[in-house]
Specification:
This protein folds into two domains: 2-172 and 210-233, Rossmann fold (3-Layer(aba) Sandwich), CATH 3.40.50; 183-205 and 238-273 and 288-313, UDP-galactose 4-epimerase, domain 1 (Alpha-Beta Complex). 41% of the residues lie in helices and 17% in strands. It contains ten helices and 13 strands. Helix 6 (183-192) runs parallel beside helix 8 and helix 6 (183-192) crosses helix 10 (290-313). The structure holds nicotinamide-adenine-dinucleotide. Residues 3-234 form the NAD-dependent epimerase/dehydratase domain.
Protein backbone atom coordinates (compact mmCIF):
# COMPACT_ATOMS: atom_id res chain seq x y z
CA UNK A 1 0.00 0.00 0.00
CA UNK A 2 1.09 3.63 -0.52
CA UNK A 3 0.90 5.19 2.93
CA UNK A 4 1.57 8.81 3.88
CA UNK A 5 2.55 9.32 7.53
CA UNK A 6 2.36 12.86 8.92
CA UNK A 7 4.62 13.47 11.93
CA UNK A 8 6.76 10.50 10.85
CA UNK A 9 9.93 12.07 12.28
CA UNK A 10 8.33 12.14 15.74
CA UNK A 11 8.28 9.61 18.54
CA UNK A 12 5.23 7.45 17.81
CA UNK A 13 4.90 7.80 14.03
CA UNK A 14 8.60 7.04 13.36
CA UNK A 15 7.99 3.60 14.93
CA UNK A 16 4.88 3.22 12.75
CA UNK A 17 6.93 4.06 9.64
CA UNK A 18 9.52 1.41 10.57
CA UNK A 19 6.79 -1.22 10.99
CA UNK A 20 5.09 -0.28 7.68
CA UNK A 21 8.38 -0.56 5.81
CA UNK A 22 9.06 -3.88 7.50
CA UNK A 23 5.68 -5.02 6.06
CA UNK A 24 6.82 -3.82 2.59
CA UNK A 25 4.46 -0.86 2.26
CA UNK A 26 5.59 2.20 0.28
CA UNK A 27 5.87 5.04 2.79
CA UNK A 28 6.19 8.82 2.61
CA UNK A 29 6.71 11.08 5.62
CA UNK A 30 5.55 14.69 5.99
CA UNK A 31 7.12 16.45 8.97
CA UNK A 32 8.29 20.00 9.63
CA UNK A 33 10.80 18.77 12.25
CA UNK A 34 9.50 21.03 15.03
CA UNK A 35 9.72 18.30 17.68
CA UNK A 36 10.74 15.41 15.41
CA UNK A 37 14.21 14.49 14.18
CA UNK A 38 15.46 13.57 10.73
CA UNK A 39 17.49 10.71 12.33
CA UNK A 40 14.19 9.08 13.35
CA UNK A 41 13.01 8.77 9.74
CA UNK A 42 13.50 5.36 8.17
CA UNK A 43 15.93 5.68 5.24
CA UNK A 44 13.56 3.72 3.00
CA UNK A 45 10.75 6.29 3.40
CA UNK A 46 10.41 9.33 1.14
CA UNK A 47 10.70 12.47 3.21
CA UNK A 48 8.88 15.76 2.58
CA UNK A 49 10.10 18.38 5.12
CA UNK A 50 6.97 20.51 5.08
CA UNK A 51 4.30 21.88 7.40
CA UNK A 52 0.85 20.22 7.20
CA UNK A 53 -0.56 23.76 7.01
CA UNK A 54 1.45 24.46 3.87
CA UNK A 55 -0.05 24.57 0.34
CA UNK A 56 2.87 22.32 -0.68
CA UNK A 57 0.96 19.41 0.92
CA UNK A 58 -1.11 19.42 -2.28
CA UNK A 59 2.02 18.61 -4.34
CA UNK A 60 2.90 15.73 -1.98
CA UNK A 61 -0.56 14.18 -2.48
CA UNK A 62 -0.42 14.78 -6.25
CA UNK A 63 2.95 13.02 -6.56
CA UNK A 64 2.66 10.30 -3.91
CA UNK A 65 -1.11 9.55 -4.26
CA UNK A 66 -1.51 7.87 -0.84
CA UNK A 67 -4.11 5.13 -0.43
CA UNK A 68 -4.00 5.60 3.35
CA UNK A 69 -2.92 8.57 5.47
CA UNK A 70 -1.73 7.98 9.05
CA UNK A 71 -2.01 11.42 10.65
CA UNK A 72 0.20 12.08 13.71
CA UNK A 73 1.64 15.58 13.07
CA UNK A 74 0.40 17.79 15.89
CA UNK A 75 1.14 20.26 18.63
CA UNK A 76 1.18 17.79 21.56
CA UNK A 77 1.79 19.95 24.62
CA UNK A 78 -1.29 20.48 26.84
CA UNK A 79 0.35 23.22 28.92
CA UNK A 80 1.43 25.06 25.75
CA UNK A 81 -2.17 24.85 24.47
CA UNK A 82 -3.29 26.80 27.56
CA UNK A 83 -0.67 29.50 26.91
CA UNK A 84 -1.01 29.57 23.11
CA UNK A 85 -4.44 28.16 22.19
CA UNK A 86 -4.35 29.82 18.78
CA UNK A 87 -1.11 28.08 17.77
CA UNK A 88 -2.49 24.77 19.06
CA UNK A 89 -5.75 25.21 17.13
CA UNK A 90 -3.96 26.19 13.92
CA UNK A 91 -1.71 23.14 13.94
CA UNK A 92 -4.19 20.59 15.22
CA UNK A 93 -7.49 21.77 13.69
CA UNK A 94 -6.55 23.70 10.54
CA UNK A 95 -3.64 21.32 9.91
CA UNK A 96 -5.99 18.32 10.10
CA UNK A 97 -8.46 20.11 7.79
CA UNK A 98 -5.70 20.67 5.24
CA UNK A 99 -4.82 16.96 5.37
CA UNK A 100 -8.50 15.97 5.10
CA UNK A 101 -9.14 18.21 2.09
CA UNK A 102 -6.16 16.71 0.29
CA UNK A 103 -7.48 13.21 1.12
CA UNK A 104 -10.86 14.02 -0.45
CA UNK A 105 -9.36 15.68 -3.51
CA UNK A 106 -6.97 12.79 -4.19
CA UNK A 107 -9.43 10.00 -3.31
CA UNK A 108 -7.43 8.60 -0.40
CA UNK A 109 -9.24 5.47 0.84
CA UNK A 110 -8.67 5.90 4.59
CA UNK A 111 -7.30 8.20 7.27
CA UNK A 112 -6.03 6.85 10.61
CA UNK A 113 -5.70 9.66 13.12
CA UNK A 114 -3.95 9.93 16.50
CA UNK A 115 -6.25 11.43 19.10
CA UNK A 116 -5.92 11.48 22.86
CA UNK A 117 -7.45 10.63 26.23
CA UNK A 118 -7.23 14.42 26.78
CA UNK A 119 -10.58 14.75 24.95
CA UNK A 120 -12.44 13.25 27.94
CA UNK A 121 -11.35 15.62 30.71
CA UNK A 122 -12.12 14.68 34.33
CA UNK A 123 -13.15 11.01 34.49
CA UNK A 124 -16.61 10.00 35.69
CA UNK A 125 -15.45 6.37 36.03
CA UNK A 126 -12.18 4.65 37.05
CA UNK A 127 -11.75 3.27 33.52
CA UNK A 128 -13.09 5.38 30.63
CA UNK A 129 -15.08 4.00 27.71
CA UNK A 130 -15.48 5.80 24.37
CA UNK A 131 -19.02 6.95 25.28
CA UNK A 132 -17.72 8.88 28.31
CA UNK A 133 -18.68 12.61 28.29
CA UNK A 134 -16.29 14.91 26.41
CA UNK A 135 -15.16 17.77 28.68
CA UNK A 136 -11.54 18.64 27.77
CA UNK A 137 -9.54 20.77 30.23
CA UNK A 138 -7.01 22.09 27.68
CA UNK A 139 -6.95 23.66 24.24
CA UNK A 140 -5.15 20.47 23.16
CA UNK A 141 -8.11 18.31 24.24
CA UNK A 142 -10.47 20.66 22.40
CA UNK A 143 -8.36 20.70 19.23
CA UNK A 144 -8.05 16.90 19.21
CA UNK A 145 -11.80 16.46 19.64
CA UNK A 146 -12.57 19.09 16.99
CA UNK A 147 -10.25 17.27 14.56
CA UNK A 148 -12.05 14.01 15.34
CA UNK A 149 -15.39 15.69 14.58
CA UNK A 150 -14.15 17.03 11.23
CA UNK A 151 -12.79 13.60 10.31
CA UNK A 152 -16.13 11.98 11.09
CA UNK A 153 -18.02 14.64 9.08
CA UNK A 154 -15.70 14.41 6.06
CA UNK A 155 -15.70 10.63 6.32
CA UNK A 156 -19.48 10.44 6.20
CA UNK A 157 -19.95 13.12 3.52
CA UNK A 158 -17.16 12.00 1.18
CA UNK A 159 -16.96 8.26 1.67
CA UNK A 160 -13.53 8.49 3.32
CA UNK A 161 -12.95 5.61 5.72
CA UNK A 162 -11.38 6.53 9.06
CA UNK A 163 -10.19 5.14 12.36
CA UNK A 164 -9.58 7.54 15.23
CA UNK A 165 -7.26 6.17 17.90
CA UNK A 166 -7.51 7.84 21.31
CA UNK A 167 -4.17 7.11 22.94
CA UNK A 168 -3.49 6.88 26.67
CA UNK A 169 0.02 7.93 27.86
CA UNK A 170 2.38 6.48 25.27
CA UNK A 171 6.01 5.79 26.24
CA UNK A 172 9.01 4.08 24.70
CA UNK A 173 12.22 4.53 22.74
CA UNK A 174 12.75 7.89 20.92
CA UNK A 175 10.28 9.83 23.07
CA UNK A 176 11.29 13.47 23.58
CA UNK A 177 12.18 14.66 27.09
CA UNK A 178 11.60 18.37 26.56
CA UNK A 179 8.61 20.52 27.52
CA UNK A 180 5.61 18.38 28.32
CA UNK A 181 6.80 15.22 26.59
CA UNK A 182 6.29 11.85 28.25
CA UNK A 183 6.69 11.55 31.98
CA UNK A 184 8.59 8.27 31.44
CA UNK A 185 11.33 9.81 29.30
CA UNK A 186 11.61 12.88 31.56
CA UNK A 187 11.86 10.78 34.74
CA UNK A 188 14.27 8.26 33.17
CA UNK A 189 16.63 10.98 31.91
CA UNK A 190 16.66 12.78 35.25
CA UNK A 191 17.28 9.58 37.20
CA UNK A 192 20.06 8.51 34.83
CA UNK A 193 21.66 11.94 35.28
CA UNK A 194 21.39 11.64 39.10
CA UNK A 195 18.83 14.47 39.24
CA UNK A 196 15.49 14.53 41.07
CA UNK A 197 12.35 14.27 38.90
CA UNK A 198 9.47 16.65 39.68
CA UNK A 199 6.07 15.14 40.51
CA UNK A 200 3.15 17.58 40.27
CA UNK A 201 0.61 16.91 43.05
CA UNK A 202 0.97 14.02 45.52
CA UNK A 203 1.93 11.44 42.89
CA UNK A 204 -1.16 9.32 43.59
CA UNK A 205 -2.77 10.46 40.32
CA UNK A 206 -3.35 7.50 38.04
CA UNK A 207 -2.27 7.16 34.41
CA UNK A 208 -2.52 4.45 31.77
CA UNK A 209 0.97 3.87 30.32
CA UNK A 210 0.98 2.13 26.95
CA UNK A 211 4.17 0.98 25.22
CA UNK A 212 4.80 2.47 21.77
CA UNK A 213 5.06 -0.94 20.06
CA UNK A 214 1.51 -1.75 21.18
CA UNK A 215 0.38 1.58 19.68
CA UNK A 216 2.15 0.68 16.41
CA UNK A 217 0.28 -2.65 16.36
CA UNK A 218 -3.06 -0.81 16.71
CA UNK A 219 -2.21 1.39 13.70
CA UNK A 220 -1.31 -1.68 11.63
CA UNK A 221 -4.63 -3.32 12.53
CA UNK A 222 -6.46 -0.12 11.53
CA UNK A 223 -5.15 -0.44 7.95
CA UNK A 224 -7.80 -3.09 7.32
CA UNK A 225 -10.12 -2.97 10.38
CA UNK A 226 -11.95 -0.37 12.52
CA UNK A 227 -14.13 1.00 9.70
CA UNK A 228 -15.42 4.53 10.66
CA UNK A 229 -14.60 3.93 14.34
CA UNK A 230 -13.25 5.89 17.28
CA UNK A 231 -11.42 3.64 19.74
CA UNK A 232 -9.36 3.92 22.90
CA UNK A 233 -5.81 2.61 22.76
CA UNK A 234 -4.67 1.97 26.32
CA UNK A 235 -3.93 -0.89 28.70
CA UNK A 236 -6.92 -0.46 31.04
CA UNK A 237 -4.40 -0.67 33.91
CA UNK A 238 -4.18 2.12 36.47
CA UNK A 239 -0.63 3.07 37.50
CA UNK A 240 0.08 5.92 39.92
CA UNK A 241 2.89 8.33 39.09
CA UNK A 242 4.56 7.33 42.39
CA UNK A 243 4.49 3.67 41.33
CA UNK A 244 5.93 4.57 37.92
CA UNK A 245 8.67 6.52 39.66
CA UNK A 246 9.46 3.45 41.83
CA UNK A 247 9.78 1.20 38.74
CA UNK A 248 12.09 3.69 37.01
CA UNK A 249 14.21 4.24 40.11
CA UNK A 250 14.77 0.46 40.38
CA UNK A 251 15.53 0.12 36.66
CA UNK A 252 18.03 3.01 36.67
CA UNK A 253 19.57 1.96 40.01
CA UNK A 254 19.15 5.53 41.25
CA UNK A 255 18.81 6.45 44.93
CA UNK A 256 17.20 9.83 44.14
CA UNK A 257 13.90 10.96 45.68
CA UNK A 258 11.34 12.96 43.64
CA UNK A 259 10.53 16.62 44.33
CA UNK A 260 6.81 17.24 44.81
CA UNK A 261 5.31 20.47 43.44
CA UNK A 262 1.77 21.89 43.21
CA UNK A 263 -0.66 20.35 40.71
CA UNK A 264 -0.84 22.16 37.36
CA UNK A 265 -3.91 23.65 35.66
CA UNK A 266 -5.16 21.36 32.93
CA UNK A 267 -3.68 18.17 34.43
CA UNK A 268 -6.34 15.48 34.71
CA UNK A 269 -6.35 13.82 38.14
CA UNK A 270 -6.88 10.25 36.95
CA UNK A 271 -6.86 8.79 33.44
CA UNK A 272 -7.22 5.17 32.36
CA UNK A 273 -8.78 3.87 29.15
CA UNK A 274 -11.06 0.87 28.65
CA UNK A 275 -9.76 -1.07 25.62
CA UNK A 276 -12.68 -3.47 25.13
CA UNK A 277 -13.87 -1.78 21.92
CA UNK A 278 -10.38 -1.94 20.37
CA UNK A 279 -10.31 -5.67 21.11
CA UNK A 280 -13.55 -6.19 19.18
CA UNK A 281 -13.20 -3.75 16.26
CA UNK A 282 -9.42 -3.87 15.73
CA UNK A 283 -8.71 -7.37 17.10
CA UNK A 284 -6.05 -5.60 19.15
CA UNK A 285 -4.83 -6.00 22.69
CA UNK A 286 -1.62 -4.68 24.25
CA UNK A 287 0.98 -7.43 24.64
CA UNK A 288 3.83 -5.59 26.41
CA UNK A 289 3.86 -5.37 30.20
CA UNK A 290 4.75 -2.07 31.87
CA UNK A 291 7.87 -3.69 33.37
CA UNK A 292 9.18 -4.94 29.99
CA UNK A 293 8.35 -1.71 28.15
CA UNK A 294 10.01 0.43 30.80
CA UNK A 295 13.09 -1.81 30.83
CA UNK A 296 13.53 -1.40 27.03
CA UNK A 297 12.99 2.35 27.31
CA UNK A 298 15.53 2.77 30.12
CA UNK A 299 18.12 0.65 28.24
CA UNK A 300 17.67 2.90 25.20
CA UNK A 301 17.92 6.14 27.18
CA UNK A 302 20.94 4.92 29.13
CA UNK A 303 22.67 4.26 25.78
CA UNK A 304 21.79 7.78 24.58
CA UNK A 305 23.09 9.29 27.84
CA UNK A 306 26.44 7.47 27.44
CA UNK A 307 26.73 8.64 23.79
CA UNK A 308 25.95 12.26 24.79
CA UNK A 309 28.55 12.14 27.60
CA UNK A 310 31.21 10.72 25.24
CA UNK A 311 30.46 13.43 22.67
CA UNK A 312 30.93 16.23 25.21
CA UNK A 313 34.21 14.76 26.49
CA UNK A 314 35.70 14.26 22.97
N1 LIG B 1 2.86 10.69 23.25
C1 LIG B 1 1.68 10.48 23.80
O1 LIG B 1 1.57 10.02 24.95
C2 LIG B 1 0.41 10.79 23.04
C3 LIG B 1 -0.82 10.58 23.69
C4 LIG B 1 -1.99 10.87 23.00
C5 LIG B 1 -1.96 11.29 21.68
N2 LIG B 1 -0.74 11.48 21.07
C6 LIG B 1 -0.75 11.97 19.68
O2 LIG B 1 0.13 11.16 18.91
C7 LIG B 1 0.71 11.96 17.87
C8 LIG B 1 2.22 11.83 17.89
O3 LIG B 1 2.71 12.27 19.16
P1 LIG B 1 4.22 12.07 19.61
O4 LIG B 1 4.20 11.83 21.08
O5 LIG B 1 4.90 11.10 18.72
O6 LIG B 1 4.79 13.54 19.41
P2 LIG B 1 6.04 14.09 18.59
O7 LIG B 1 6.12 15.55 18.97
O8 LIG B 1 7.23 13.25 18.82
O9 LIG B 1 5.56 13.93 17.09
C9 LIG B 1 4.84 14.91 16.41
C10 LIG B 1 5.53 15.13 15.07
O10 LIG B 1 4.77 16.06 14.31
C11 LIG B 1 5.64 17.00 13.71
N3 LIG B 1 4.87 18.22 13.50
C12 LIG B 1 4.33 19.05 14.44
N4 LIG B 1 3.65 20.04 13.86
C13 LIG B 1 3.75 19.85 12.51
C14 LIG B 1 3.25 20.53 11.38
N5 LIG B 1 2.50 21.64 11.51
N6 LIG B 1 3.55 20.06 10.14
C15 LIG B 1 4.31 18.94 10.00
N7 LIG B 1 4.81 18.26 11.03
C16 LIG B 1 4.53 18.70 12.28
C17 LIG B 1 6.78 17.17 14.70
O11 LIG B 1 7.97 17.65 14.12
C18 LIG B 1 6.93 15.73 15.21
O12 LIG B 1 7.84 15.00 14.43
C19 LIG B 1 0.22 13.38 18.09
O13 LIG B 1 -0.89 13.61 17.23
C20 LIG B 1 -0.24 13.39 19.54
O14 LIG B 1 -1.23 14.35 19.77
C21 LIG B 1 0.43 11.24 21.72
Amino acid sequence: MRILVTGGAGFIASHIVDALIEQRHTVAVVDKLSTGFVENINKRARFYPIDILDDALEDVFAVFRPEVVIHHAAQIDGQMSLRQPRFDAETNIIGTLNVLERCIEHKTRKIICASSAAVYGPPAAPVIREDHPIRPLTGYGISKYTSETYIRMYGEQHNLDFTILRYANVYGERQGAKGEAGVVSIFADRLLAGEAPIIYGDGEQVRDFIYVKDVVAANLQALSLGHCCTVNIGTGERTSVNRLFGFLRDLTGSGTQPVYQAERTGDIKHSCLDNTLAASVLAWRPVHTLESGLASTVRDRAGLAVTARNQTTL
